[in-house]
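Bit of a strange request maybe. I'm writing a small parser for structure token strings and I need a real example to test against, not something I typed by hand. Could someone generate the tokens for this chain?
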Amino acid sequence: MMNLSIPLFILLLTGYSSAFAYVNFTSNSTTTKSLNKPSGWYIFQKRHVFIANFTVHNINYWNNIAKDRLGPDYGPRRPKHSFIRVDNVNKVIDSFVRIISNCSTKPQFVKSRDKFDLVDMKWKTSSYAVHFMGPMYICVALKHGKPVHFAGFES
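Reply from user aminoacidic:
Good idea to test on real output. This should exercise your parser:
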């Protein structure tokens, strides 16, 4: 599904709390006919974090469902699997996963989509947006204002 570089492999083995690794994505998905192996530099500040492909196939659907389940009291202390909206990406970006490079590819379907619950897709005009849900860290890159399919979550 994907190839990880040696620095990231070392990170997973040693369990360092932070590292700077280069990630290279590959895919054999038939839905992605022109995948340019999106790759880039990532900062990892959580233990045992890895990167996987993630699909946002219907933004409006996910957004509407998530809004219905969001309450006024949301934040990092919410229970597991709760929806947590990140209103200020720059303030919390270093606490999760940060995309450094600007990668571009066509979103593809992830077979393990059931591992990802509904997330509030409140897009930003910046080059990235981050959403937190339980133990999972979902990071979506934006290319010309449109989402690209990156996701990071704890192993």
